Please model this.
Amino acid sequence: MEKKDYIFELKMKVRDYECDAQGIVNNANYQHYMEHTRHEFISSLGLPFAGLHGEGIDPVVARISIAFKTPLRGGDEFVSCINLKKEGIKYCFYQDIYRLSDMRISAKGTVEVVCLVHGKLCNSALFDKLFEKWVR
Model:
């Protein structure tokens, strides 16, 4: 499978403790990889993720779906990639993980994120501005 174009990519490496008894990455760790990639994406745009709560903005995952394709193993290097779309008040992150050794897709995820602004579910003007070039 040929790798698509993405708006953000982050290279990482599997740590041995992330693997299960079969020697492959435990499924829950893919969510960690995807979450870390989203946080790094937001930080790359000049907005430290950790400071959002202090501003009254809490982006939260509303739904996540992951299809597991090719397992990662301890020591594998991989790239976690993002595309983004907005649907109503949801920001839909389309996240793919590729094993670098052969560029085979390891996981495909869709993560729907909503924002609580001062405790109220609503559009985030800050995120709309931050993501404007991708979610027009």
